[in-house]
Design a protein that fits this description.
By secondary structure, the protein is mainly alpha-helical. It has helices at residues 3-34, 41-56, 63-85, 96-120, 124-145, 153-181, 186-196, 200-208, 219-233, 237-249, 256-305, 308-311, 314-343. It contains 13 helices and no strands.
Length: 344
């Protein structure tokens, strides 16, 4: 490519790349200003991208740069996310009985959503993203899984918004009602939220506002327990990503970024094990903004490529049904398992 060609290509990608970066930073900045665990910067950036896209109509000026932004910042965010969150040592901090129950609950999450996706004739990419986001860790799981299943912007937008709606309804109505109905203790409530809620922010908030529970542990310990249980769910990405990638490609497929994700997680685990949780927390303090900003930019780019009409389509309705059904089935499974554990 000659010099003129390079500059022409640079001029083509610059507007879209800059727009995606600015919207992503705006989403990240807004959540930091508001300082609420209920607000996920990835969701805010996605919604802002969709809103801006609708105002741009069908302009092609930003298209190439927006596509480039997604392809750069998604893998970068995945690697730094693994460094902070993929902590294998957390397995030793959760009771084996609860680990087994978590495995059953996640299996129910996946089974119900995958089955419904097949019955409803849902697009495979949306089904897999909805399942990952619901069973593992919301927007983060969708961000990690989306490149592995060759998801289009509309697939990501539909699945993420569906999982978000189901998560907030469950957090605000379903979980508190069941906890009160079954008179759960603080400890069991932490296990319930850490095992079933989709977003880490929701788990953190739920663990801190529990005046209706029988308190059998301090609030600070409740928060630590709930987040530890939630952290163990991240490890399911090591199975879900290659599985769904292989199903899409109809052959064994392990995306390149998964190896980087695992390597980053092993390094983070080594820091946690060798230097203690305090050192790991210091590392996370610097790493978290990097992966969050990277994914916010990627999500803004996805929003800039999404079509609003697709969000209101049959696929959107089906994804919402799947997300709600998966959450309800997983929560009932957890309560039944908890009753069985206490009974025996």
């Amino acid at each position: 490519m000659n010099k003129n060609g390079f500059y022409r290509q640079l001029q083509d990608i610059r507007p879209g790349l800059l727009l995606a970066v600015l919207i992503g930073l705006a989403g990240y900045g807004l959540t930091n200003v508001l300082k609420s665990s209920l607000l996920d910067p990835l969701i805010i950036a996605l919604v802002l991208g969709i809103v801006v896209k609708s105002s741009l109509k069908k302009s092609k000026r930003f298209e190439s740069g927006v596509i480039l932004a997604s392809s750069i910042f998604l893998p970068a965010g995945i690697i730094f996310y693994g460094l902070q969150n993929l902590n294998f040592a957390k397995l030793n901090e959760v009771d084996p009985t609860i680990l087994l129950l978590m495995l059953v609950v996640m299996s129910v999450y996946f089974a119900v959503i995958l089955l419904l996706g097949k019955v409803l004739g849902q697009k495979k990419q949306i089904t897999y993203l909805t399942a990952s986001g619901s069973a593992i860790c919301g927007a983060s799981a969708i961000a990690v899984t989306s490149p592995a299943v060759d998801a289009e912007p509309d697939d990501v937008s539909i699945s993420l918004l569906s999982v978000t709606i189901a998560a907030f309804v469950g957090f605000a109505l379903f979980i508190p009602f069941l906890a009160s109905l079954f008179n759960l203790t603080s400890r069991n409530y932490c296990f319930l939220t850490g095992t079933t809620l989709q977003f880490t922010g929701l788990v953190a908030v739920a663990a801190q506002y529990t005046p209706f529970l029988k308190n059998d542990m301090p609030v600070k310990e409740m928060l630590s327990l709930a987040l530890t249980v939630k952290a163990v769910r991240y490890l399911a990405l090591l199975v879900a990503v290659p599985l769904f990638s292989s199903l899409i490609k109809k052959k064994l497929s392990i995306p390149w970024f998964l190896w980087a994700f695992i390597a980053a997680g092993l390094f983070g685990t080594w820091i946690y094990s060798a230097h203690g949780s305090a050192s790991h927390s210091v590392l996370a303090r610097y790493i978290k903004p990097v992966h969050t900003i990277s994914w916010s930019i990627a999500m803004s780019a996805i929003g800039l490529n999404a079509e609003v009409k697709e969000l209101l389509s049959n696929n959107g309705s089906k994804s919402l049904i799947m997300a709600f059904a998966g959450f309800i089935a997983a929560t009932i499974t957890f309560l039944a398992g908890l009753y069985f554990i206490n009974y025996i």
